[in-house]
Structure formats: C-alpha cells, structure tokens
Design a protein that fits this description.
Strand order of the largest sheet: 1-2-3
C-alpha cells in the first residue's frame, strides 16, 4: 500500500463527510469541498484556465463512494454529479491542504460575487 492510500475509508452521511484514515491520522473532507474541487472536466475544464467555479453547493451531500480500480474513488453526490475520479494522491493532497484550498475557493466565490447557497443569495 502506498503512502497516499488510506487504510480506511468511511462515508458519514449525516455529517456529509468522507473520512480517510492514514498512518498519521484521520481526516474528514466535507462533501461541499469535494464537490467544488472535483477533478472532473465539468469542474476543472478542458485546459488550463477553463475551470468552472462551482456555486450553490453548501448543502450538497455524498450518496455513494466506490473504488475505481486500485488507484481512485468515484464519488456520487446528491446533486447528480458523479464524474471525475479522486485518485489517492489527490485525496491525500486535499486532506493535507484542505484549509488552504477552502480559503482559496471562498476567495474565488467572493471575487465572482457568487454564493455557496443554492438560491444564489450573494457572497457569504
């Protein structure tokens, strides 16, 4: 097992979090973070600078987590999004840098005058 491969994976439906356990500890990634930072082409775009800012995802939840081969997870969200494979290295990076990625996402939302709320009620 590689260093990036978690020892345990648990989906917590009530708290809308994915828990990944590594030798150095347990990490929880919220569904909203995972959704807005999806590695899918729908979110990242088809080239550098073509990403699409995800808005209105405050209440999104995870409904399924499936292994994809021995290298990734396929996550299914309750808004229907299910494309993009979260490989072990990407998930580990999200665990270790989640606060920085979250703050960057919030800053991009603010700069765009967008909201985390589904009704688009403006910046948080």
């Amino acid at each position: 097992m590689s260093e990036a491969h978690p020892q345990k994976i648990a989906l917590h439906l009530k708290s809308r979090e994915l828990e990944l356990v590594y030798p150095d500890g347990s990490y929880r990634l919220g569904a909203e973070l995972l959704r807005v930072l999806s590695p899918s082409a729908e979110v990242r775009g088809h080239g550098v600078g073509n990403g699409v800012l995800q808005t209105g995802k405050r209440h999104v939840g995870l409904v399924a987590v499936e292994p994809s081969g021995r290298y990734a997870l396929k996550l299914t969200f309750d808004d229907g999004h299910d494309s993009g494979l979260y490989n072990w290295h990407y998930l580990r990076d999200l665990c270790l840098n989640r606060e920085r990625y979250w703050q960057d996402y919030l800053a991009r939302l603010e700069a765009a005058g967008a909201s985390r709320d589904p009704d688009g009620a403006g910046a948080d």
